């Protein structure tokens, strides 16, 4: 298939492009490089040994998106492009709503105009809000504590409403848990701007001495050691989940959790990282961070049953691959 990948030069998008190319699909990337670099394209080509087509466009730009659809035979869209910093979304709600929601509408409209019937959307476990773990796809969504989460819930709703009146449209809403790790080549991985929001890049930057110590937000949650529990998933497993979702798509709306189903606490992750890489990660406990929940992990049987997909890589592999990328790539 010929797949339009929006946000394809970003962290998850670039790994997914490689997985798509390795599975025999062709890839057209649309990205405005607001949170990634064009060198990503070269790395995707180097790793996969396949060509890709790249458009530096903003996917909220209807005209620019239309141009791609008009000039290329597109079989499906994977929509990663989005702003993703939870804290920043509270500061800049309009930017987040505009970017993340309008992009979904523009792409869906182009699909309608050009008869493209496969769509895969990057959603997030955030949409479950403070439900009881493990999160199951059938749960009612609860309000999230930030505009970022709402943009995901709104985009899911837009795509669902569209699919309901367009029976030949297939949409997979993929709710990611906590993607970490990097490609085993060490060439691509997660390189956030500024101080990382997510735990793993924070840990790798502390290990490298770039940041002084890890701040652990709260040790009084009702969890095994008081620190927050998350479901970390290797980004390559996540990438393969997208290929499985695309290749197994049937008409209608399909929601899948992409996680491992296993919760790991912050302190467990730090220990696993130290042991896997034989390096120390100094940390201090600080106050809870507003908006964080105690536990978040997936119930994963639906993806296994319907897509034949499940995460294979363990926490040690995630820690090793994240560290290899950090050592190779960051100043
Ligand atoms: N990383 C996570 O922890 C996580 C968890 C759940 C969901 N997600 C979602 O997965 C998707 C990909 O996340 P990521 O971690 O790879 O982020 P990322 O920032 O590395 O990648 C997003 C890409 O989209 C591009 N982009 C943003 N707005 C755009 C626009 N209007 N037009 C064109 N390009 C645009 C950016 O330049 C970037 O390359 C996002 O939608 C994110 O919300 C991520």
TrEMBL record:
Species annotation: Bhargavaea cecembensis
Catalyzed reaction equations: UDP-alpha-D-glucose = UDP-alpha-D-galactose
GO molecular function, one term: UDP-glucose 4-epimerase activity
Annotated GO biological process: galactose metabolic process
Domain NAD-dependent epimerase/dehydratase residues, every copy: 3-259
Pathway stated in the Swiss-Prot or TrEMBL entry: Carbohydrate metabolism; galactose metabolism
Top-rank taxon, per record: Bacteria
Pfam family, one: Epimerase
Organism taxonomic ancestry: Bacteria, Bacillati, Bacillota, Bacilli, Bacillales
Required co-factors: NAD(+)
Protein name: UDP-glucose 4-epimerase
Annotated family: Belongs to the NAD(P)-dependent epimerase/dehydratase family.
InterPro entries linked to this entry: Epimerase_deHydtase, NAD(P)-bd_dom_sf, UDP_G4E
Alphabetically ordered keywords of this record: Carbohydrate metabolism, Galactose metabolism, Isomerase, NAD
EC class name: isomerase
EC number in record: 5.1.3.2
Subunit structure: Homodimer.
Gene Ontology CC terms, in alphabetical order: cytosol
